[in-house]
Amino acid sequence: MLIAKQKNHVPQNHHVTAYIGVGGNLGDPVTTVRSALAELGKLPRTSLRAMSSLYRSSPMGPANQPDFINAVAQIHTTLAPLALLFALQAIEHQYGRVRTGARWGPRTLDLDLLLYGDRQITEDVLTVPHPGLFDRAFVLYPLHEIAPDRVVPGRGTVRALLAGVMDQPIEAIR
User: Which of 28, 34, 112, 155 is catalytic?
Assistant: First the structure.
């Protein structure tokens, strides 16, 4: 346990740039995603630095659900990775997210820790870079909008990764 705490420790004054995927498809997802983006800036020891436009895409999972609305936010934080994850889950809960265990089903809000500095993290409850980041247009398009030259550890730049998902349909909401 002590090793895990040390591994996830971030010095109090050391800001890390992290990227958060924001999405949802139940209720009024446009309003929910915009509100959730604002909530990220209210996290302790965290500031919201940039946010992408909103994007609409078909669901990855079962087809009998509404389209998803997605965005990506860039934050600076001194929260350790697991503390940030738990804070994101608290926001999801605040917006009515219920975890049923079913993958890719409908949800009011989904907040994913996509990148945390240059760290590669493999924990029971957290993997960074997020495992779906590399092959999902609804993550790469908004991430490219705010950080096209960002290097994804072990994978290359966001710009290069985006080239691999250009065939996936996605619509920017202006």
Answer: 112
Please answer whether residues 150 and 118 qualify as being in contact, where contact means their C-beta atoms are separated by less than 8 angstroms: no
Q: What is the pTM of this model?
A: 0.91
Q: Is 107 a catalytic residue?
A: yes
**pLDDT tens digits for range 61-112:** 787 899 999 999 999 999 999 999 999 999 999 998 777 666 667 889 999 9
Respond yes or no: is residue 112 known to be catalytic: yes
Q: Which of 56, 107, 119, 136 is catalytic?
A: 107
Catalytic option among 28, 45, 67, 97: 97
Number of H helices, E strands in the chain: 5, 10
For domain 2-173, which CATH number applies: 3.60.21.10, 2.170.190.11, 3.30.70.560, 2.60.120.40?
3.30.70.560
Q: Which of 49, 110, 124, 135 is catalytic?
A: 110
